[in-house]
């Protein structure tokens, strides 16, 4: 790959790393990452991946920027209130790094569109930055079925968790959490609150996993659930195993088509976002 | 007897089923918590059958949703 002088300088702190080098930076520039949700987790993940030079970043969100988002969703600014989040996110990324091609998907994900969105640019890695369980299970099942790696994460109050799924290499999200919890059984950030930095910490770990996957270096959070408690300032890396009875990646999978967990379990208008 | 719960040492007075242990330890969100016993994620249907024994390692794993809004 031929770098311009500007690129050599922009990415010099990457290129000097022996684990990255010019070859690795070339891989990053040629890579494609899809970020579902441009909120607390997706915002910092998108910004660090943009700064790193990920060549194609897909942003999926149907929401508009709200004043209450700005305490943590740092890709959006006060002037962006009322704007579609994907547009606001694209504008910020374009200002940060002209090397990045941003593709926007102004829609909520569902069983009807998620695979088409992932296949649209044949994304290398998917980041789940969503805030609800129907979407988290949908992303998991889609990635298992079409064999795509992805990073799961969740944040609430002062806590966060994340794990990385790589096809054939470890447990999926459903191995650990078999089905979505009933609606309102588990609080959302809107109901329970979240310290703004939690998205920064956990979303940046998701971006780190994406870069490591692209570069093929180090050890991913595959087969581990990383949990973070900010009040105790404690990380725990819990070894987790595949569940043979997993409905989607187990020995006899029962899920062969994607499921929309809406209806009794989820209020479409309020929570399926 | 001693077991390890989410990385911490925990003394319990006797063996319990997983279901009983959720009550004994007053585990939060016990209707929805995932239980991993010695590296194996348990099916909810087995909570009444499986006994937690001396020296076992138990992880309670919780749903965490938030992220976007």
UniProtKB/TrEMBL annotation, chain A:
Domain THIF-type NAD/FAD binding fold: 11-247
Keyword Nucleotidyltransferase among UniProt keywords: yes
Superkingdom field: Bacteria
Protein keywords: Nucleotidyltransferase, Transferase
PANTHER family on file: ADENYLYLTRANSFERASE AND SULFURTRANSFERASE MOCS3, UBIQUITIN-ACTIVATING ENZYME E1
UniProt-listed Pfam families: ThiF (PF00899)
NCBIfam families listed in its UniProt record: PRK05690.1
The protein's name in its UniProt record: Molybdopterin/thiamine biosynthesis adenylyltransferase
Molecular function as annotated in GO: nucleotidyltransferase activity
Tagged with keyword Coiled coil: no
Automatic annotation (TrEMBL), chain B:
Alphabetical list of InterPro entries matching this protein: Beta-grasp_dom_sf, Mopterin_synth/thiamin_S_b, Thi_S, ThiS/MoaD-like
Pfam families named in the record: ThiS
Protein name: Sulfur carrier protein
Organism whose genome encodes this protein: Thermoanaerobacterium butyriciformans
Transmembrane segments: none
CDD domains recorded: Ubl_ThiS (cd00565)
Top-level taxon: Bacteria
């Amino acid at each position: 790959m031929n770098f311009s002088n500007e690129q050599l300088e922009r990415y010099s702190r990457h290129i000097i790393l022996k684990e990255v080098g010019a070859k690795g930076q070339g891989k990053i520039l040629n890579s494609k990452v899809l970020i579902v949700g441009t909120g607390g987790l997706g915002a910092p993940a998108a910004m660090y991946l943009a700064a790193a030079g990920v060549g194609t970043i897909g942003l999926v969100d149907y929401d508009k920027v709200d004043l209450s988002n700005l305490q943590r969703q740092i890709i959006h600014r006060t002037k962006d209130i009322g704007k579609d989040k994907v547009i606001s996110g694209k504008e910020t990324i374009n200002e940060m790094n002209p090397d990045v091609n941003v593709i926007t998907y102004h829609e909520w994900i569902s069983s009807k569109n998620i695979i088409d969105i992932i296949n649209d640019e044949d994304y290398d890695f998917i980041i789940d930055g969503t805030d609800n369980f129907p979407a988290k299970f949908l992303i998991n099942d889609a990635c298992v079925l079409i064999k795509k790696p992805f990073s799961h994460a969740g944040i609430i109050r002062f806590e966060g968790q994340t794990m990385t799924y790589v096809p054939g290499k470890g447990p999926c999200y459903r191995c650990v959490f078999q089905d979505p919890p009933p609606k309102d059984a588990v609080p959302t950030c809107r109901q329970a609150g979240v310290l703004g930095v939690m998205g920064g910490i956990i979303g940046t770990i998701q971006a780190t996993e994406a870069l490591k996957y692209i570069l093929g270096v180090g050890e991913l959070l595959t087969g581990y659930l990383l949990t973070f408690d900010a009040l105790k300032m404690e990380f725990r890396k819990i070894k987790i195993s595949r569940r043979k009875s997993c409905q989607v990646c187990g020995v006899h999978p029962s899920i062969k088509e994607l499921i929309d967990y809406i209806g009794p379990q989820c209020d479409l208008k309020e929570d399926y976002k | 007897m001693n077991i390890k719960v989410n990385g911490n040492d925990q003394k319990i007075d006797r063996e319990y089923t997983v279901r009983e242990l959720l009550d004994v330890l007053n585990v939060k969100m016990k209707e929805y918590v995932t239980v991993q016993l010695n590296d194996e994620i348990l099916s909810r249907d087995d909570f009444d059958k499986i006994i937690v024994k001396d020296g076992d390692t138990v992880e309670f794993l919780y749903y965490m949703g938030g992220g976007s809004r």
